[in-house]
Each structure stands twice: as structure tokens, then as C-alpha cells.
Amino acid sequence: MTRRAFALLFLFLAANALLAAASRLAGEVDAKGLANAVARERGRVVLVNFWATWCVPCREEFGSLVRLQEAHGKHLRVIGVSTDFARERQAVEKFLTEQKPNFPNYHKKSGGDDQEFIAAVDPSWGGELPFSVLYGRDGRKVKVLSGKQSYRDFEREVRRALDGSSPASRPARIRTRAAVRASAEASPEPRGLPLGRQG
Amino acid sequence: MGLVKTAALVAVILGLSVCVRGAAPSIGAPAPDFALTTLDGKPFSLAEAARSRQAIVLMFIATKCPYSNAYNARMREMAAVYGAKGVLFAGINSNKSEPADEARAHAKEHGHTFPIMKDPDNKVADLYDAKRTPEIFVVDREGKLRYHGRIDENYENPSQVASPDLKNALDAILDGKAVEKAETKAFGCTIKRV
Fold first, then answer.
1. d(C-alpha B19, C-alpha A184), whole Å
2. What pLDDT is stored for residue A194 in this prediction?
3. What is the complex's ipTM, to 2 decimals?
């Protein structure tokens, strides 16, 4: 009886270990978990990239992230977050097996309201994918990048963050006419206004 | 003309030349007017449509985006239910990678009978600073933006929606009330701009 119990326990533990080893994901993450993952990398520049297997531009830029991590080694930590539907887990594992990333990838926890997650990551993020957030060595957010980026785009921003020359800022936005006028007139608080009716 | 004034004029001209994508219109502000042609060749003008309806629901949609496609049935159903109450649903496809033929085939496949328009050079997407699909803007009969964001919070399970945000917004507008949650966010696919 005891021998059988040990055998079963061994099989159970082995099966769990195999399952864990088989997954390419570092785990599931919510907004707080992601913030903790970023905080653990204090001292490095961190680039968090939100992607999904069905998102063609996400897949197209993923290779650039692998190159980036390789190029900057211990000075940079790339963190990927899959926002795939829960039922697409198999597709996520397949994608990661093919891509062989050299950085951790998490799966966004299912359930709950996505907009809380989106708002927690960055207030300017509308939920579009792909989307990346860059943090300086001190853990402060320095840049957000909406849409597909080239390797050159990522490299430029990471280098700026590594040099410490990029101030904490919101994503660049084209200003409205009113804001340009206000700036030209040296108004202290330029404000954007609706463009108004256009045919 | 003095140097400062000249510099200011140059700055304004340069600013005008690059100011093609502004901030999203604010809730309560006039929604940017536009005119497009529907996939079946009919003219569509937001201003004209708004005048004869209780509200217009502008939906930035895509043919290939799983998030947008997760809402095909809900868009169709809501368009029918609220259409009877004087609300017009209209789809806008701003993706450069999805030609009109593809959008037409997609609409037919999913039984969409609401007007759908291609948005050449994503001009309307830029006017609204639309970032993803699906993304919703609701304009009332006075031409004011009353809601901006998602259809609901649960793209995976329509039967388990806990926050039917678009429905709530439309019900409030039809009842003459303020929209409680006028701005929401959700995941979606980036609009493939030129």
C-alpha cells in the first residue's frame, strides 16, 4: 500500500512538473501582478509589450523584441503579455514555441473588466494592440508606443531610456489648431479643442 | 512684419499643415461631421443622418479583427432593436488592408444590413482619433457626442455580459437622461492607417 501511494505521488508530481515545463508562459497576470513584475526589474530598462496571436502586426514585431533583448542583455528586460482569449491558450503556446522568446511572457488573467486593466497600464491606452510601455531604470514610465514598431523604433527608444535622456512623458500627440495658436501666443495652458464640423 | 509675428505665422502654418489627427472629440462636444459613401453606393452624411434620428451609433469595425467579429451578432441585434426606436447604426471600415469588396463580403456573410462605409485614407478615423476596432461613438440628434467606447465588457460570452455599456448609453439618450458611463475602453485591433 505504502509503495503504491509513493508511486502515485511520484507520478502526480512528475506529471505536474512536465505540464509546468511544457508551458512557455511565465504565468497569468493582472494589472497588479504586472506592476510587480516591472518593479522586480528595478535597475534595468523594462519594455512591456501587449500582444495577441491573432494580431498580425503583433506577430510581425515580436521578432524585433527577441532581437532587442538579445542586443541589450542584462540592461533591458522585455516582458510580453498575451491578451488572447482564454480559449486560445493552445495558440499562445504554439506561437511561443515557434518564436522561442528570450524574455518572459505572461497571459493576461481572464475575467473581470478589461478596461480596469487597460486604465491601470496607461490612461492614454485605448486598448489597441500591439501596445508597448517603456520604463526607465528607476521604474518610472518614460514612453508608450501604440501600434506596430520596427526594430529601429524600439532600439531608439530603449537607447534613450538607457541613456536616461527621455523625460517621463505621455505619448506624442498632434496638437489641434487652437493649441498651436495658443502656443504661438505663449499661452500658459494650451488646450485641445474639437476640430468642429467638416464636410 | 516683425520677427516674432513672422515666426508665429510660420508656426501656425506649419501647425495647420500637420494637424490632421487631433484628440478624440469630448463627450458633450459637437461630433466632427463627415460625408462618406456606403458600400452599396449611397451617400452618407452624419449631420443629415443625425437630424432625422434619435441617435447615430458610429462603429469602427474590421473584417479580420477577432474583437470586432466577436460583436457581429450583437451589432446586428442591437441595430435591429434600436433601429425600431429611431437609432441608426453605421459601420466604418478605416483599415487600408481591407478593401471594399472584402468589407462587402464580410457584411453579407454576417447579415449586416446597417450602412457600412469604407473610410479612404482613414480621414474619419483621424477626425475621431479612433484607435481600434471595434470602437463606438454615439452622436445624438443635436450632433453632440454622448458616448465613446465599447459595446460591453465581455467579448467572449454575450450571455454573460455584466456591463452593457452601449445599451445603457442608448437607453439613457432615448429617455432624455445623461449617460452615466459615457467613456469606456476595451481591447481591440489597431486601425491599419495609411
1. 15
2. 34
3. 0.75
pTM for this model (two decimals): 0.78
CA-to-CA dists, residue B37 to A167, B42, B83, B92, angstroms: 44, 5, 20, 10
Domain map of chain B by residue range? 25-190
A-chain residue closest to B124, CA distance:
A198
Per-residue pLDDT tens over the stretch A141-161:
999 999 999 999 999 999 999
- Give the residue from chain B lying closest to A50, CA to CA: B187
Nearest to B134 by CA among B188, B57, B74, B191: B188
C-alpha–C-alpha distance, residues A184 and A190, integer Å: 10
Q: Quick check: A170 pLDDT over 70? A: no
- The answer as to CATH 3.40.30.10 being correct for domain A21-184 is yes
* In chain A, domain spans: 21-184
Q: Does B66 touch chain A (CB under 8 A)?
A: yes
CATH topology of domain B25-190: Glutaredoxin (3.40.30)
**Which residues of A fall within a CB distance of 8 Å from B18?**
174
Q: Residue B22: which pLDDT band, with cuts at 50, 70 and 90?
A: low
SS3 B60: strand
